[in-house]
Batch of 3 targets.
Target 1
Amino acid sequence: MLAGPRLRQVAVVARDCGLVAGQLRRAFGWEPPFHDPGVGQFGLTNAVFIAGDTFIEVVAPARPDTAAGRYLARRGGEGGYMALFQVPDLAAARNRVAALGVRVVWTADLPDMAGTHLHPKDVPGAIVSLDWAEPAESWRWAGPAWTGQAPGHGPGGVTGLTIEVQDPVSAARRWAAVLGVSAASDRIAAVVELREAGQRLRFVPARAGHGEGITAVTIAGLPGGGPVQIGGVSFACDAG
């Protein structure tokens, strides 16, 4: 049973999906990714890799005037683009974001999977998605092998993110409110702990000349250990 929100998938936006996907495979020895034709509706191509029972996705614009293309321009290059959180009660999560005045830019409701993408101007730092899966260990967005089931997979998975934003404390509080958890802060960074999932979201000041975005991902059991900079994101092993 899913006791609280869990970071299940992180998306990196790249100019060339195949190039960055190839770099990830060579760095970490991951199995060939799933390519979802459904992202074509957003004008994208993608590649979804399995990391434990979580997922790292690479997306790239396939046509002009896409949200991903605009992000590349704002960010000044490649970087972390989306954070997809699995929630135990999607109706409650949707009611919560509505009460917070957060705009929704896309929804999908399928028998085994549902998702809600939130407006990045209302939840700064990335496109946040609130998703639900049945059974909880499945994840349709990762392809047929994960649709309505969970295949055999290795241990580990995503344990945390670092997100660069203009106002870390405010952003952390906003993400925490959206996720229905609390936030803590100090002089340097603000942190949202997903305690049931053993994950941490760390918010830091954006560097000069860069837009907001995800800049680091930690993964338990990451082959090679890292940190390795790929697609504008630092990937590192979380030794726990």
Note: The CA atoms of residues 43 and 62 lie 5 Å apart.
Target 2
Amino acid sequence: MRRFGLIGRNIGYSFSRGYFSEKFQQLGLEDHSYENFDLEDPAQIPHLLRHTPGLAGLNVTIPYKQAVVPLLDRLDPVAAAIGAVNTICFESGQLVGYNTDAAGFRESLAPLLVPEDRGALILGTGGASRAVAYVLRELGLEVCYVSRTPSEGQLSYDQINGEALKRYSLLVNCTPLGTFPDTDRCPTLPYELLGSRHLLYDLIYNPPLTAFLSRGQAAGARIKNGLEMLQIQAECAWDLWNR
């Protein structure tokens, strides 16, 4: 049996398990399985990585994308540059970390950009936000993080005003706010100041139309949820596990 799985916390809603289980069924891979490793404590991760029989590949999600980095033998250059891992491969006895979030985000975002999109606000500072920032900088956009507890060079949510929204036309939600079942929640922003020049991208995919996207859409902004990004990053992970 080739075992695959997802490391995270409170991941009963997981996209990955359903996606890969269906994929294995369609491909007739009866000796493949995918399971959730729902861990309350990051201290549980080393034992899982080194002592779980049959593991052939892992995905990593919130809140462990950065926590797994020091536990691996080496990192792919992209994952090293980002500082976060969402895919782990077992290569010749070594644990190797990759980041396929970057490829998924880039491929799903790029067709939506227009020449006027020169700056982006990244809402949240977790592991997923690092991949987002990496891609946006590669695409030539100015990047600014927004946080409830901002560090130097970052903005707080109460600093997002008309001037900021004129400078930054792309807003990417990398927080869990709005994820099912808390679908009424969204980042605290002056949504009434948004318009057609803005693009709102939400890494959340459940529900498909989050409160963040709904309020942006009502103001005339372009919107995109995270489902396509997830599908792309999952296929990239599958390719890495089967090289």
Note: The mean pLDDT is 96.
Target 3
Amino acid sequence: MTLGMQSVGFGIALFLTAGVPVSNLPDALGDTFGFGVLLGVPVPILMMLSILAVMFVLLNYSAWGRHLYAVSSNPKAALLSGIEVKPILISAYVLCALIAGISGLLLKARTASGDANLGGSMALESIAACVIGGVSLRGGIGRLGNVVLGAIFIGLVQNGMNLAQIGSYLQIVVLGMLLIVAVVFDRIRQKRLYRL
């Protein structure tokens, strides 16, 4: 679903812009959301911390979070337990789309450009951060704090590759290899859990 919608959105953006970056964005957009500072903290950091706080409460202290873990782990068992699966899935997709939209706004404000090619590798980076953070691709397993650590790890790896002057194309290869290694370890972990 994620990769399919990314392809649809990317195609629509290229069609609407004819592949040409949109420029002449209002300066207030960049000044507020890209480089703004509130109480001595950059606005993008404040927005990230706010989203993390809301997600932490939702995932750990709400019925919706418990239902989401149950549905992602085993939809049939969740349905038999009385959980309405479709509303949980739809709300999860809507929430992900909202967060992706906020991320796109912040990226656009930071670069002062509406380029359709901007952030093309972010789906790979996001999936890699989640899997490295211990989220199971089969669902039902994962913690928000570990995903944040996975994202920090991906950022450190990218920063290290930039400092080592590794080309952007090779960086995508390295991220793909990290994702493969993380998926292999996830499969090994799943097999050990099933043996117990």
Note: Strands lie at 37-38, 41-42.
